[in-house]
Amino acid sequence: MSVVSYFTLSLYISALINLSSGYIFILAFHLNAKKRFEMARIIAVVNLNLYLIVMNYMEGLRAGEYLLYFPYFLVMTLVIDVKKNFTELKFVYLITIISVLICLNVSPFENYYQVRIAGMFARLYNSNLAISLTLTTFFSYFIFRVNRDNEEAILKEKHFVDTIYNTSLDGVLIMDAEYRTIIGCNNRACELLQIRNKTEIEGTPIEHWFTSEHINLFKSIEMKLASHQARDWQGELALTSNEKTFFAFVNMVPFLDNNRRFLKISILDLSEIKTAQFELMKAKQKAEEASQAKSRFLSNMSHELRTPLNGIIGTSNLLLQEEYLADQKSHLDILKYSSEHMMMLINEILDFNKIEVGKLQLGQEPVDLKKFLEKISLQFGAQAHAKNIGFKTDIDDNLDIEVLTDETRLNQVFSNLLSNAIKFTHYGEIVVVARKIFSTSQKATIQFMVKDTGIGIPANKQQEIFESFTQADVNTTRKYGGTGLGLAITKKLVSLFHGELQLESEEGRGSTFHFTLKLSISENRKRYINEDKVKHLCMFPGVKVMVAEDNAINMSIARRFLTKWGIEVKEAYNGKQAVELFGQNKFDLVLIDLEMPEMDGITALGEIKKINPAVPAIAFTAAVYDDMRADLLRKGFMEFVPKPFRPEDLHNKISILLAANSPA
Ligand code: ADP
């Protein structure tokens, strides 16, 4: 429009300036569309300023071209985002003010350079004024619209945040940290504190809302938060309102707003949880009391039953020894069998009860494990043979040790397992296995097993049968008798020994019950060697052996045997002494304990081998572990003798090593 009007007035230069400026604006639009915003803005601003300076100069100030600066200032605020680019806006303002100043100073009042037409300035002025007013109105309205939209968006956002705040299940109180008063709260807080209107809480001191005991705690937390010792706090506090007190899980977080400190206090009501906890505690107490009453009853009853039962058993025994009619024998046998069976049941119940209330404690007496297992096997072997089933033992040779344990209770474990095995096996065999898995001089880890080839236990019953009064099959009682208490007791007994009774079984093929115990080895050194077994063994005349062993008793036993076999013995009581002694003498063989003070056996052997690499060495050790032989061979030993040693074993190994080492 301007270009056309300039042509009608024959203002061709102005029309040309308008056109070029228009083209440059199109370029700026293009750059804007290509997302090169900054370049587009620079071009637009420079273009507009240059346009206004040149136009004002070419037409003279009287033409009123400078009036376009008004809408231009408005456009700037619109185009440049005040919040994000305030510096840029200031910069553009500065350029524009400079351009206004240049324009006003440089431009003449009237310029007839292009044409001289009467009334030209008035027409130009009027049209510029009209354009300026239209653009100013348009941009003002536009700015007003943008502001209104922004405000609406802000209100919507606030409404959204308020909804979240007020629908939260946590009550929220906002406290002014300086004045210690509540400045706001959400709806849930009003509900919890039983307030109808938020104004009832706003402005009140925080002390109003916590119990007197907890307000002190609250203050100390506040101090910690204020001194930045903690970033937030969480815990239980008691709140109070309208004389009602309730426990809440409270969460406190400080925050800054406009340089003022606030505290956000979130409250989660715990009343229901607390009530449930209280009810649970009461129920637990009741259950414990009931269980104690049951235990007391069981224990009293079984004691009471035992007295008359002893009478019945005694009398039936007496009757069986006295004269009776032939057809009374079967009755007396039933009487004897039934009363004894009943006594066994009562004993089981009593035991079970004792274990349940934790009254059963294990004794610690020295037990010869091998003898113990042999004794048990003898007893149950006879029962198995009577039923025409095989009975075998598979006991580790190394089990010739004495351990500290409770023989009676261990016996009870085996008796239960073996009587079950015999009861539920109809053909095949029963095997008792005992294996030393690992040992040191103080402890031995032993695995025990009772295997049978009986009816087996279905997989879905394998857990259940360890529970009290449970049997694998509902017909068991009728077919085999029993109470279903035996395994429950056995499992508990094994756990008293710090073991775990485990089962592997396949229905129709048999069952294996096994458990592993770590038992203390008895210090009783009499068991260190089984002298009964020492037979007359051949002599080694002229052979010289060094024994390195820190324990005096072990040393004396070793010495006794070695000298008995005609060996000359030199003694070292630690690794260092052994190395020194070896350096001073010539030995045919060395016997070295692995665990010694100052220098252990393996290091000592390393040193000894530096002096004489060919000397045969036997390790003397209380430890037993997997691949021990291979491990010791790698470390330079040729043999090992486990402690407590069997003399024949030691003799045998010495003679093999001496024969191998002697010149042919
Ligand atoms: P009881 O033998 O007095 O019934 P237990 O607690 O000793 O009670 O055993 C529970 C159940 O476990 C037995 O009734 C039987 O079904 C099953 N059971 C136990 N040992 C064996 C076994 N060696 N072979 C097969 N079933 C067994």
Rg over C-alpha atoms, rounded to the nearest angstrom: 52 Å
| C-alpha termini separation | 130 Å
Instruction: Supply the CATH architecture of the largest domain.
Output: 2-Layer Sandwich
Low-confidence stretches: 525-534
Rounded mean pLDDT is 86
Portion in beta strands: 15-25%
How many β strands by DSSP? 17
Q: Residue share in helices?
A: 40-55%
Ligand species: adenosine-5'-diphosphate
CATH class of the largest domain: Alpha Beta
CATH superfamily of the largest domain: Histidine kinase-like ATPase, C-terminal domain
User: Mind summarizing the main beta sheet?
Assistant: 7 strands, mixed
Which structural class should the secondary elements be placed in? Answer: alpha/beta
CATH topology of the largest domain: Heat Shock Protein 90
Instruction: Tally the structural domains.
Output: 5
Count of helical segments? Answer: 19
What are the SSEs and their pairings?
Elements: H1 2-8, H2 12-33, H3 37-59, H4 69-79, H5 86-106, H6 120-167, E1 171-176, E2 181-185, H7 187-192, H8 212-226, E3 233-241, E4 244-257, E5 260-269, H9 271-321, H10 329-356, E6 365-368, H11 369-386, E7 390-395, E8 402-405, H12 407-423, E9 429-439, E10 443-452, H13 476-480, H14 486-496, E11 502-506, E12 510-521, E13 544-548, H15 552-564, E14 568-572, H16 575-584, E15 589-593, H17 601-611, E16 617-621, H18 628-634, E17 639-642, H19 647-661
Parallel strand pairs: 7-9, 13-14, 13-15, 15-16, 16-17
Antiparallel strand pairs: 1-2, 1-5, 3-4, 4-5, 6-8, 8-12, 9-10, 10-12, 11-12
Helix pairs in contact: 1-2, 2-3, 3-5, 4-5, 4-6, 9-10, 10-14, 11-12, 12-14, 16-17
The structure holds adenosine-5'-diphosphate.
Adenosine-5'-diphosphate is lined by residues 416, 420-421, 424, 452, 454-457, 465, 471-473, 476, 482-488, 511.
